[in-house]
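Annotated sample (chain length 354).
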Amino acid sequence: MNILVTGAAGFIGFHLSRRLLDDGHTITGIDNLNDYYDPRLKRDRLAQLGVDVDIAGKTGSANPSGSRAASGNFRFVRMDLADRDAMNGLFEESGFDAVVHLAAQAGVRYSLQNPHSYIDSNITGFLNILEACRHHPVSHLVYASSSSVYGANTRMPFSVHDNVDHPVSLYAATKKANELMAHTYSHLYGIPSTGLRFFTVYGPWGRPDMALFLFADAMTSGKPIDVYNHGKMERDFTYIGDIVESIVRLIPRPPQGNPEWKADAPDPATSFAPYQVFNIGHNKPVALMDYIGELEKQLGVTAEKNMMDIQPGDVPRTWADVKDLFEYTGYRPKVAVSEGIAAFVSWYRDYIGK
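Output written by the structure step:
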């Protein structure tokens, strides 16, 4: 297939692009290489995909064609989601079979200080993707949602069939909005769309603004780590390999519309339109203190811990119900935290050492 992956220099986008290339697909990856976190990590990921980092690392070019590179079956285009004309031009020239939309302004806490960047990227950017898919039809649009959409809900495990109308961060609200926008375009224009609610993704090449990377940096530097809600947190930590395997199995399986969907008892996870939503999580919540303990074990370092109150926008617990994912794809995430952290630490020592 000829597949567009947005956010290809990001954590999930990089791993997915590498897997799809290994599977023989032709990939166009786009990313704006912003400085939300150190863009050197993004360029190093692209280097793993065979992209010339000097070309990918250009700055100050308003023309996406000025930041273009090619390597085998992978082409990288530096582009901002909010650039409508560039997006339309890319779709018109490329003839994509499928789109996996992973690019977004991420981070719950960052949204408290920089709300406009979430609207520009997550709302306007997603609209541009939808419009491009409308005018240049694809067989399947797969896009990243988030477990954050569950917000104030405390019914466990989180089910895609539950209502998610009470977000507690702007980031979560934009992801919920993405699901609503996707449904509208699926209904109006027949775009088959699948939303993926990711649960706390971690692993090699992970984001440095997330807990595992932050903890490792602090612990290996002899600095204390910040532990929120005094450690009384649980997360459904999900290894990057499980995320990628789930996406790969979903790409060739676009929704057809649920013939059993009822307007007088609407199921939020499906629709009469070609639209569906899945959780992708390990389905086994892990206490934050146990997560830290496993990292201490793998690094051989005992962390000094600053116990702090919970931050605005955070929730104390997440837990994914993945029954629908398993029934649809035959796969459920399976990598244990001990195995996943070991893989991260092995990569971290090698990468930071270099």
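Annotation: The radius of gyration is 20 Å.
Annotation: The mean pLDDT is 92.
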